[in-house]
Amino acid sequence: MTNTIQPIINAARTGDVDALQNLITADTNLNATDEKGYTPLIIACYSNRLEAARYLMQAGADPNAADFGGNTALMGACFKGYPEIATLLIENGADLNRQHGNGGTALMFAAMFGRNTMIELLLKHGADITLLDNRGMSVFDLAAQQGNEDGIAILENYQPA
What we know:
Layout: H1 5-14, H2 17-23, H3 40-46, H4 50-58, H5 73-80, H6 83-91, H7 106-112, H8 116-124, H9 139-145, H10 149-156
Helix pairs in contact: 1-2, 1-3, 3-4, 3-5, 5-6, 5-7, 7-8, 7-9, 8-10, 9-10
């Protein structure tokens, strides 16, 4: 971790856009990570700091950067259930079908944690319902495992455009 990334991570966590503006310079690596592999954007998104996330992406943060487990900002937003953050990430090129270290996707996170609005959002933008995780589990399997009947219904009724 560089000396400058921790204050940026802290500002991202609290959503302090003014601090971000003061801390980020032309040579700041916005994809640098803390000791857990989190980038400022991942932290801002996981903390539901929409304006901080927007500023970080405008400043050059990679929406597809991943932590040490392969989790992206979009996966975190889907786990937590933040549709505005997810929309921002998708509009800025977040990979809907990226798989983390165990093969999970943002759609799988949404299905497992009952974030059905997120399922609808991801499907609307073209998330792949056929991907399997490393155990061979599909998004349907994961939703069923968690008892997410409404999520299963959304997935079953999905009609690709």
